[in-house]
């Protein structure tokens, strides 16, 4: 039997340049000029393989013998040590992906399906504010339900909606990691939810003004400022504040306002623009607003070159101690449609820019009910301005 363990830890430093056998395929190679390393010679499937085991003195004689024993056993089992080590190295590199990097990559891959390519940051902010400060520097493959529970427990009940969004985004990031080939726990989020338990927070709807009170409020918006005109147009059209704020003069032609698809939240799967029928009253408001136009914005802000701030309208209502909020006028309009008209459900929902029906039904039913909406929006304007008090019926 060939001798093994020929070298000694104390004698290695005195070995001259050249290769020195420790036995069983383990060699110490003194390259000179302070370069010394361990080499293992091994035969796999009839082929001689040679692999480095690290440099001395970082890898001691004892370490080298342990490594050699491990790889010899792999070779005896028919595994190529060189290929196996490379495979393990690649796997280790994949598993070192940090959550912050995987989450950012997941965000990039989803931008196309987010409003405005997610530039407002609302998709990523729950992760950025409540998860990444605690877990961003952790390899995504190491994250488990305990980590997630501890990160979100402080806001699980106090900021329930934000916590829910953060949990959802985190789940997407972990699935993205799995798609990258990382060894992640796809059940970690569900297990964290089980640990956190049911949320005590009860979601509250955005306060809305009763439709019967809207005419009185509308009459108070009479000073012709951008803020008053913006609120009037918001009430008359039932659009979201983002679409209103970002209204450009070129989007309006006659009695039609065409809102770009990127501002039409709530129409999942829709990629086309949305037409809003403008009542005579709405057109009058727009003509008044044109006197304030700046840089193409119909409703410009008081500072800079952009549109009116998203807080301006809310602050006006808050100063007046009105409980309702600007977004709530959509509810006022929808409730009026239900209480005072016989508009079909799909028409009433389209007034608010909502998609109705299944994906298949929408593929065949492509009407935006513009003519029916034109009648309804004119009657709504009559109600808002105090010119209508009767129930509206749609015929024909």
Task: Compose a concise summary of this entry.
By secondary structure, the chain is of the alpha+beta class. Helices cover 43% and strands 11% of the residues. The protein has 17 helices and seven strands.
Description:
With 396 residues, the chain is α+β, with helices and mostly antiparallel strands. It folds into three domains: 12-94, Integrase, DNA-binding domain (Double Stranded RNA Binding Domain), CATH 3.30.160; 99-196, Tyrosine recombinase, N-terminal domain (DNA polymerase, domain 1), CATH 1.10.150.130; 211-384, hpI Integrase, Chain A (Orthogonal Bundle), CATH 1.10.443. It is built from 17 helices and seven strands. The chain has helices at 61-76, 81-94, 99-110, 125-130, 132-135, 145-152, 160-179, 188-196, 214-219, 226-237, 241-245, 280-289, 312-319, 328-340, 345-351, 359-364, 370-384; strands spanning 18-23, 26-32, 35-44, 47-55, 252-253, 256-259, 274-277. The strands form two sheets. It has a four-stranded antiparallel β-sheet, covered by helices on one side. A hairpin with a 2-residue loop joins strand 3 and strand 4 (47-55). It is elongated and about 110 Å long. The relative contact order is 0.07. Mean pLDDT is 85; it is low at 266-270. This is Integrase arm-type DNA-binding domain-containing protein.
């Amino acid at each position: 039997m060939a001798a093994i363990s020929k070298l000694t830890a104390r004698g290695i430093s005195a070995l001259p340049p050249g290769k020195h056998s420790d036995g069983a395929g383990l060699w110490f190679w003194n390259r000179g000029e302070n370069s010394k390393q361990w080499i293992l010679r091994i035969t796999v499937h009839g082929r001689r393989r040679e692999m480095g085991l690290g440099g001395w003195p970082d890898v001691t004689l004892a370490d080298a013998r342990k490594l050699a024993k491990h790889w010899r056993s792999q070779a005896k089992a028919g595994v190529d040590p060189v290929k196996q080590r490379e495979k393990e190295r690649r796997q280790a590199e994949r598993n070192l992906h940090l959550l912050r990097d995987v989450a950012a990559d997941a965000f990039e891959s989803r931008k196309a399906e987010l409003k405005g390519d997610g530039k407002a940051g609302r998709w990523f902010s729950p992760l950025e504010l409540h998860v990444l400060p605690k877990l961003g520097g952790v390899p995504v493959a190491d994250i488990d339900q305990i980590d997630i529970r501890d990160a979100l427990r402080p806001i699980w009940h106090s900021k329930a909606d934000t916590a829910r969004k953060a949990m959802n985004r985190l789940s997407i990031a972990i699935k993205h990691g799995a798609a990258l080939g990382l060894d992640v726990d796809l059940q970690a989020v569900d297990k964290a939810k089980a640990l956190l338990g049911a949320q005590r927070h009860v979601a509250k709807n955005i306060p809305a003004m009763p439709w019967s009170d809207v005419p009185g409020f509308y009459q108070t918006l009479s000073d012709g400022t951008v803020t008053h005109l913006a609120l009037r147009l918001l009430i008359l059209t039932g659009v979201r504040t983002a679409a209103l704020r970002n209204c450009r003069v070129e989007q309006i032609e006659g009695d039609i306002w065409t809102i770009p698809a990127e501002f039409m939240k709530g129409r999942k799967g829709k990629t086309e623009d949305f037409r809003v029928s403008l009542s005579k009253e709405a057109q009058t408001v727009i003509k008044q607003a044109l006197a304030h136009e700046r840089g193409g914005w119909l409703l410009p802000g008081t500072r800079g070159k952009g549109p009116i701030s998203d807080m301006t309208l809310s602050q006006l209502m808050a100063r007046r101690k009105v409980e309702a909020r600007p977004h709530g006028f959509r509810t006022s309009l929808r409730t009026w449609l239900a209480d005072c008209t016989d508009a079909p459900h799909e028409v009433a929902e389209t007034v608010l820019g909502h998609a109705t029906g299944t994906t298949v039904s929408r593929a065949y039913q492509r009407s935006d009910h513009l003519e029916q909406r034109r009648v309804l929006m004119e009657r709504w304007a009559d109600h808002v301005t105090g010119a209508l008090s009767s129930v509206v019926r749609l015929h024909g």
